[in-house]
Amino acid sequence: MKLFVGTSGWVYDWNPDGIEWYVRESGFNAIELNMSFYSFPREENVEEWSKKAHELRWSVKVHRSITHIRKLNEKALPTWKRFLERFKDLEESIDFYLFQLPPSLTFNEKVVKRIELFSATCEKIAIEPRHLSWFTMEALNILKDKGVYVVTPDSPLFEGLPSMGVINIKGIVYVRMHGRLTWYNYGYMDEELYEVADRIVEAKPVKAYVFFNNNHDMLGDGRRLIEIFQEKYGTGLA
């Protein structure tokens, strides 16, 4: 199993010097771009990341106008194409485009057809549902058939991982660590990190991506998870 660990964004109090510090000192080999959910980055920003952080594996969060305002309808496709074009300089380092769905989007045929529209344009789409209706074998099998990856959230939605365990799509697992009892402002206990590691290994992926989205504790928690994989399974970063 190839292991990739990182954080959702890098502008936090634990980072004294931006993306360059992250590449040099964090100990991680992946990054989730979070700011792209709120605004399109400038072309010069993307070019800079492609030079300074090309060795990281990237997941780029898709702009909210696509996922939350237009909710993946046909009118969002031109914006999506512009979004993809903006990241052309970084494309070789990008493994996923992360579509975080709003909680109002339940699993239904209409939304699945909308997802299919986007999956036809890109092979790197990862979906993170925020409604429990998506976490059934029926829904997951349909998404798998559409050629999209599915994020496993560790979050207050379940107070941990879903009961079905870590989701493996085409040999890939993608876990987002949001916190258990509360969103974002949460530090993971050792036994919780061991549980996550065990559940990932049980899913038997070829590649495992874990991104911490719990703000002030993400650096320490991410480093500790890497240690746990090394200590228990002899698995280091890819």
Explain the overall architecture.
This protein has an 8-stranded parallel barrel with strand order 1-2-3-4-5-6-7-8. Helix 2 links the parallel strand 2 and strand 3. With 238 residues, the protein is of the alpha/beta class. Helices cover 35% and strands 19% of the residues. It starts with a strand and ends in a 5-residue tail after the last helix. The protein has helices at residues 18-25, 43-52, 64-69, 77-86, 109-119, 137-145, 190-202, 218-233; strands at residues 2-8, 30-33, 57-61, 94-100, 125-128, 149-154, 172-177, 207-212. It has one domain: Protein of unknown function UPF0759 (TIM Barrel, Alpha-Beta Barrel), CATH 3.20.20.410. The relative contact order is 0.16. It is built from 8 helices and 8 strands; from the N terminus they run E-H-E-H-E-H-H-E-H-E-H-E-E-H-E-H. This is DUF72 domain-containing protein. It comes from Infirmifilum uzonense. InterPro entries: DUF72, UPF0759_sf.
